[in-house]
Design brief:
mainly beta; Jelly Rolls; 2 domains; 6 helices; elongated
């Protein structure tokens, strides 16, 4: 049975989590990260005899580049310069003998506490978690990265508690955000170590054993969404089918809304945060992936726009001699199996030549593929903030006879179709309400 799989990996990089406020999340300042020292050098107090920890690999330097975040250089080799399989490079910036003696105690953001007869920046009771964004900037081959913190007891015999983030495997260009739960520590007034460690499953694949992590941020860009224009078919009912007032209907415009999507510009996965204000209150909106109609007469490669259309829907426009028509949905989904009547229409028309003249593509029809992948409902003020996370995977099968479970098949009919998507939608919204949407349906 032939299968075509389409996977949209979506990784959240910036987020608003529950009722967590910024004050409860410890974020490292650039000057703090730039002062990172390798594990063997963490005890910076003059006269200290402590040897520090030892790793097979080592962190060899930092560069505070323009913008947020710092480039940190690791060398996954032993002291003789030989690559070591499963080598670990560690860096630690903060111990009392480290951060304060390097002049970076205040930059740590931690509070002062009396320790070893002096006031040191160790108190982390104001924070519930440490969140570190980073990305694998330079190197060859996969590496594993984790962030850790160590606390000690305030009184009596010294007892350490180590807290780790989940280890994550990164390939060059991959971004990540690692989080450490500080509430697991019995005492957060004595935070004695923080660090980022890297290990390569196969260090022999890394030339000279060198990699660069950018710690403190991931490259992002921000797109501003604008009013779709008079072609939008407005719905003036909220999710409970209550009509907006006549005054609101006569005065509201999407020109007054501010909607932005901040997303990562590196890595193989798209992730980011969409924020909105002054949308319609208590209103449901669709989020869609939309292809780019680049197909020209004579092309044999139909590009990613077509791949998206096979698993989504088609917006059809016809050349009218001077411009493209506003367009319409191909809206005969049949039973949802592939190819459905919409797909058949697309296949029959996608290469028809222009007969009126002047078409910029040389074609009579233009198709833009799109697919709904999420929904959100605004609050009573028309506000919304959401980080896209997780993984969406659909398997499209042309036949309905299933020999094994199909990812995304919610009604056990052997295929992922609009019946399955309807079940998904009903699980996300109150069952008594249909899903409203502005514009294309």
């Amino acid at each position: 049975m032939r299968k075509v799989a389409w996977v949209i990996p979506v990784v959240g990089l910036l987020s608003v989590v529950g009722d967590v406020t910024a004050a409860e999340t410890w974020a490292w300042k650039d000057s703090f990260v730039a002062a990172f020292v390798e594990a063997e050098g963490i005890n910076r107090h003059p006269g200290s005899t402590e040897p520090g920890e030892t790793f097979a690999g080592r962190m060899v330097g930092t560069v505070d580049v323009a913008g947020p975040g710092v480039d940190v250089y690791y060398r996954l080799v032993d002291a003789a310069g030989r690559p070591v399989v499963s080598a670990v490079a560690g860096l630690e910036v903060w111990k009392p003998e480290g951060a304060d003696w390097l002049g970076q105690g205040p930059a740590s953001g931690l509070g002062l506490v009396q320790q070893w007869g002096q006031a040191l920046h160790m108190d982390a009771t104001a924070f519930d978690r440490l969140r570190v964004p980073l990305w694998y900037k330079e190197g060859i081959g996969p590496v594993e990265v984790r962030v850790f913190c160590v606390t000690g007891t305030a009184q009596g015999p010294w007892v350490e508690t180590q807290m780790d983030s989940a280890s994550i495997t990164l390939n060059p260009g991959d971004p990540a955000e690692l989080e450490v739960d500080l509430t697991k520590a019995p005492d957060r007034t004595r935070l004695v170590k923080v660090g980022v460690v890297v290990q390569a499953p196969d260090a022999h694949r890394i030339p000279a054993g060198d990699i660069v992590l950018h710690i403190g941020s991931v490259p992002v860009a921000t797109a501003t969404l604008r009013n779709y224009g008079p072609n939008s078919a407005y719905r003036w009912l909220d999710v409970a089918d209550q009509a907006y007032s006549e005054m609101y209907r006569n005065t509201y415009s999407y020109d007054d809304a501010v909607v932005t999507f901040t997303y990562n510009t590196v890595g193989p996965s798209l992730g980011g945060t969409l924020t909105a204000r002054n949308l319609k209150p208590n209103f449901a909106y669709q989020l869609k992936f939309q292809g780019e109609a680049t197909h020209m007469l004579g092309d044999t490669n139909y590009g990613p726009n077509e791949l998206l259309g096979w698993s989504g829907r088609w917006w059809e426009q016809q050349w009218q001699g001077q411009a493209w028509s506003n367009g319409w949905n191909l809206n005969n989904k049949g039973n949802g199996s592939f190819p459905n009547p919409n797909d058949t229409t697309y296949l029959a028309r996608r290469d028809l030549p222009d007969t009126r003249g002047g078409s910029p593509t040389g074609l009579r029809y233009q198709y833009t593929a799109y697919r709904v992948f999420d929904y959100f409902i605004t609050d009573e003020q028309g506000y919304w903030a959401h980080a896209m996370k997780g993984r969406i995977e659909f398997t499209i099968v042309p036949e309905a006879d299933c020999t094994q479970p199909v990812a995304g098949d919610l009604n056990n009919d052997g295929k992922v179709d609009f019946l399955a998507l309807a079940l998904l939608a009903s699980a996300r919204l109150p069952s008594s309400h249909t899903l409203p949407a502005d514009g294309r349906r």
